[in-house]
Automatic annotation (TrEMBL):
It catalyses: adenylyl-molybdopterin + molybdate = Mo-molybdopterin + AMP + H(+). Keywords: Magnesium, Metal-binding, Molybdenum, Molybdenum cofactor biosynthesis, Transferase. Its EC number is 2.10.1.1. This is Molybdopterin molybdenumtransferase. CDD domains: MoeA. Its cofactor is Mg(2+). The keyword Magnesium applies. It holds the Pfam family MoeA_N. Belongs to the MoeA family. It comes from the Bacteria.
């Protein structure tokens, strides 16, 4: 049976209904040693049993004495004190006998002989004494209930005489990956195999949230097997997460299994991604059916599962940190769902800017790259570029403020420079987006990037970059920093089986080309050469197939989807392709003059001038770095 009709509850409503139906969690408790309690949640308020210090103690090395005997002491009138008669020698932490009421530091004493000392200033009562209970008084509240124990709390608890305490047991969360197509990581892959990584992500999330993950082996799409595993997990664990099989496919059994062995309360919530989520109860334990797509799974885990895993330990979920940011691109949304849009953040001209990342529910890298999440309400159709939006943070504000935003033409050396810069100075990061040279210029114009790598050939003069900067960024003074001269050429399969030598060859019958996107420098280079040779784009099979990076072009050739693509030498060697050079081009970095004195920009320039960077270029091959880092135009 295919379960086609899903509900479309609003997220908060769904959670409210679900929690109500689940009823109160019965929280399990255990008594553990205080020294093992870091990160655990207290069941009760903890009051001290003893005071700390539990006796009057010396705060300094010196002598304990009676203050009245010192009152007449001054620079002009030294007073002599006798051991055992007037004082005893004490070290820091030593108990102070009742008859003494102050401590004088050893630095303030003049030794007369073995038994006598002289003092030259008076002491006040209780000076340099830590009185009993100065830090903690018996019966004082040390930490409240439902408190997550920190290392400092452990110190105060032990000082207060508490050596063991009751905490909530870590809930055991069963994780069941399902799918006949799933294979364990490391298996040699056949077409159609899917590496199970969701269950490993869930395990890590569960442990971040204080739970113990218990992962079950992959279960095939077999009703009986899924049912047996759910029954087993619900008896062994405090909660069960079952992955995939949530939507309308022929082998999506999860909802039926939950209904049969327990109660399915909700199937379908108005969130995107993540809509086919299931919430139910089996063996009186919460069970959540999590959609298969990794990004859907992530949001269902964060938005729904997390509060239950935390609730099982008595933790109240924290409110997310939110910042205001200006949206750089229109973000579309559907009226049917609350949408979670992953964004990359930048900090430019003293404000945060947010650029939406790939939207697909399978785009795992969008989560890796994301600095935050824009939530678009269910009743909003989309948000225009330029709008100030609220972003829930996944990264720290400080990191984003220390990130150089580099948008423009892609070259693998930018990723290398990024890594070297961070190694040189751990506080700095570089984020790069590949939108082609013209896209980079537009980003500089709009104040959305600190720098733009470009390689734009002037078709009339044959000169690179300068004329474009002057023409397309009229309102800002721009510096061009030399990056590299790089060899562009044809990337072909090893041995160049189709014998591609020249731009003329691209129009040959039966040869499949793969192009770069419009606005990219490589595309301009192609068009320039085609125009020179009078070849119309329609003549080239694959001209309209666009990729966004050199590596993506190389990957298409390597996979056999195309016979030839135009790109840089390093991308060809990385993909083990042959390379037929066609020309050298100037790959430079445009930086508005107002940013050139920023410390992070200076660090970037130092990075690309560094020996380490040049060594990396040498390894890649195909780059001329004689002028790298020079400001060639201002
Ligand atoms: N006709 C319809 N088809 C789909 C609908 C729909 O409403 N009607 N909903 C789509 C949406 S939205 C989602 S989300 C997915 C949910 O799919 P399932 O939960 O049934 O999961 P599968 O189909 O088994 O897997 C989908 C996809 O997820 C990845 N995956 C699954 N398991 C793992 C794992 N353990 N580790 C890593 N990745 C995993 C994999 O790419 C699968 O192909 O359904 C849509 N379809
Ligand atoms: O719910 Mo699906 O997760 O929109 O991709």
């Amino acid at each position: 049976m295919q379960n086609v009709y899903l509900s479309n509850y609003e997220l908060n409503e769904a959670i409210e209904i679900y929690l109500k139906k689940l009823g109160n969690f019965s929280l399990n408790k255990e008594k553990i040693s205080t020294w093992d309690a870091n990160g655990r949640i207290t069941c009760n308020p903890m009051f001290s049993i003893i005071s700390s210090p539990h006796y009057n103690s010396s705060a300094m090395d010196g002598i304990a004495t009676k203050s009245e005997k010192t009152f007449s002491a001054s620079d002009r009138n030294h007073v002599i004190l006798e051991e055992f008669e007037d004082y005893i020698v004490v070290d820091t932490g030593d108990p102070i006998p009742r008859e003494y009421d102050c401590v004088i530091m050893v630095e303030d004493l003049i030794k007369v002989d073995e038994k006598k000392i002289e003092i030259y200033q008076s002491a006040t009562p209780w000076q340099n004494i830590r009185p009993l209970g100065e830090d903690i008084v018996e019966n004082q509240l040390i930490i409240p209930s439902n408190h997550k124990i920190r290392p400092v709390d452990i110190g105060a608890l032990i000082a207060g005489g508490i050596n063991s305490l009751e905490v909530y047991k870590k809930p055991v969360i069963g994780i069941i990956p399902t799918g006949t197509e799933l294979v364990e990581p490391g298996t040699s892959l056949k077409i159609g195999d899917i590496i199970d990584f969701n269950s490993r992500v869930f395990s890590a999330q569960v442990s971040d949230w204080g739970g113990i993950a218990k992962r079950y082996n992959i279960v095939k799409d077999n009703y009986q097997e899924i049912k047996n595993t759910v029954i087993k997990a619900s008896s062994e664990c405090d909660m069960v997460l079952i992955n995939a099989g949530s939507s309308a496919g022929r082998e999506d059994f999860t909802s039926e299994v939950i209904s049969e062995v327990g109660e399915l309360m909700i199937h379908g919530v108005a969130i995107k991604p993540g809509k086919p989520v299931m919430m139910g109860k089996v063996n009186n334990k919460p069970i959540i059916g999590i959609p298969g797509f990794p990004v859907s799974a992530y949001f269902v885990m964060e938005k729904i599962a997390k509060q239950i895993v935390e609730g099982l330990q008595g933790i109240e979920s924290k409110v997310d940190k939110v910042i205001d940011a200006t949206l750089t691109k229109r973000a579309m949304s559907s009226l049917k769902y609350l949408e979670f849009v992953r964004v990359k953040l930048g900090y430019i001209d003293n404000k945060f800017i947010a650029t939406p990342l790939a939207r697909g529910a399978g785009a795992t890298m969008s989560l890796v790259k994301a600095d935050g999440v824009l939530e678009i309400d269910q009743n909003v159709e989309g948000i225009e570029a330029g709008t100030i939006v609220k972003i829930k943070m996944l990264n720290s504000e400080e990191n984003i403020k220390n990130t150089l935003v580099c948008i423009g033409s892609h070259d693998p050396i930018i990723d290398i420079a990024s890594d070297i810069m961070h190694q040189r100075n751990k506080m700095y990061f570089l984020s790069s987006a590949n939108v082609g040279s013209m896209g980079g210029i537009m980003s500089l114009n709009k104040g959305e990037a600190h720098m733009a790598p470009i390689h734009l050939l002037n078709m009339e003069t044959g000169e690179y970059n300068k004329s474009y900067v002057e023409k397309y960024i009229p309102n800002k003074k721009i510096c061009l920093v030399k990056c590299v001269k790089r060899i562009q050429g044809f990337m072909v399969k090893k041995g160049n089986p189709l014998n591609v030598k020249d731009f003329k060859d691209l129009s040959r019958d039966g040869l499949k080309f793969v192009n770069r996107q419009r606005g990219s420098g490589t595309r301009l280079l192609l068009d320039y050469n085609l125009k020179k040779l009078n070849i119309s784009p329609e003549k080239i099979s694959g001209y309209f197939r666009e990729e966004y990076t050199h590596l993506a072009v190389a990957a298409a050739v390597s996979a056999g989807d195309a016979d030839v693509g135009l790109g840089v030498y390093s991308a060809a060697t990385m993909m083990n392709l042959d390379f037929i050079p066609v020309c050298n081009e100037e790959y430079d970095i445009a930086i508005p003059e107002e940013y050139i004195e920023m410390n992070i920009v200076k660090e970037f320039i130092k990075t690309i001038k560094s020996k380490t960077f040049k060594e990396e270029l040498e390894k890649l091959g195909g780059y001329d770095y004689t002028e790298t880092g020079d400001i060639i135009y201002q």
